[in-house]
Design a protein that fits this description.
Elements lengths: L12 E6 L24 H7 L5 E7 L7 H12 L5 E7 L9 H8 L3 E7 L12 H12 L3 E5 L5 H10 L5 E3 L13 H11 L4 E5 L16 H12 L4 E3 L12 H11 L5 H15 L14
Parallel strand pairs: 1-2, 2-3, 3-4, 4-5, 5-6, 6-7, 7-8
Length: about 300
């Protein structure tokens, strides 16, 4: 039985960032190369991770190589047909490859897919997202009514700024707080870049677990509150989305521990502010129907 939480909980949680996958289908490189992640992760494992919390569902985010985006989306749609806890999906596509953009129409036809992610956190070019071909690809994503999502490290944020400049009327989701370093003290370059992004009203940030490498040490808890509070200060309560990043997050922190850490960091937040962070903003961005705690529990 899950232990009791200290203090108050949000009344409902819509997790904007989780993954399920079979180990044979994800890259044995980057974060998914960690030995702890070289196994299959099913939705039942995910449900067990948040047992006892008011989670009403989550948004499954691309984890296979973007080139496998169609197959992954089809597989997750089949699973979602029998699992109401999969509220939506962010699919993958190598949007910079013009010959692959026709796949975006197929992804849009999948009713589960609400966004498209292109992760470039391990790309050697810190300005990769600023390349014209990638901007053109994400412009097509937006034209189709899908939400662009990007995953970068803090020193690559200038590319995200260029992308936001090029798509000023588009909702753009940034993963994992822009991936600052988890260290004590100020990070002026990360804050400067995030402040520049915050001037774009369409940019939304996932308040989700940060990992830089597969061998990261356990999450230094004291470093999290200053980072998450700065992001809310810059973007406001309407442009932040709770995310777990499960099961990648399990390399450094447990699901319940992450929720509790955020609640401690925002102990002065109102119930309405917490509901926006943990539920309403994600429901708006990913266009999910209204959900209530317990509604998707298995019989």
């Amino acid at each position: 039985m899950a232990s009791e939480f200290r203090g108050r909980l949000p009344k409902r949680i819509l997790d904007s960032h989780f993954h399920i996958f079979r180990a044979a289908e994800v890259p044995d490189a980057g974060l998914t190369s960690a030995p702890k992640l070289r196994r299959d992760f099913a939705f039942a494992d995910y449900r067990a991770a948040w047992d006892g919390l008011p989670v009403v569902g989550g948004v499954m985010v691309q984890v296979r190589d973007e080139a496998d985006g169609l197959a992954e989306a089809a597989d997750i749609a089949r699973e979602a047909a029998g699992e109401s806890g999969i509220a939506a999906m962010v699919g993958g596509n190598p949007v910079e490859e013009s010959g692959r953009r026709a796949e975006l129409d197929t992804l849009r036809a999948n009713p589960l897919v609400r966004g498209i992610r292109r992760g470039t956190q391990f790309h050697p070019d810190p300005l990769y997202l600023a390349r014209p071909e990638l901007i053109a690809g994400f412009r097509r994503v937006a034209e189709l009514g899908l939400v662009p999502e990007v995953c970068v490290k803090h020193f690559q944020l200038d590319g995200v700024i260029a992308l936001a400049d090029a798509l000023p009327d588009t909702t753009l989701v940034l993963d994992h707080l822009g991936k600052p370093e988890l260290v004590a003290g100020d990070q002026p370059q990360w804050r400067r870049r995030m402040a520049e992004l915050a001037r774009h009203p369409g940019v939304v940030v996932k308040v989700s677990v940060i990992l830089q490498q597969p061998d990261d040490p356990p999450l230094p808890r004291e470093t999290v509150p200053p980072i998450v509070r700065q992001v809310v200060e810059l973007f406001g309560w309407d442009r932040v989305l709770f995310g777990s990043n499960w099961p990648v997050s399990t390399l450094v922190v447990g699901y319940r521990d992450w929720v509790e850490l955020l609640l401690d960091a925002f102990s002065d937040a109102t119930d309405d502010e917490l509901d926006r962070l943990f539920y309403r903003n994600a429901a708006r961005v990913w266009r999910t129907p209204n959900r209530t705690p317990g509604a998707n529990r298995p019989e």
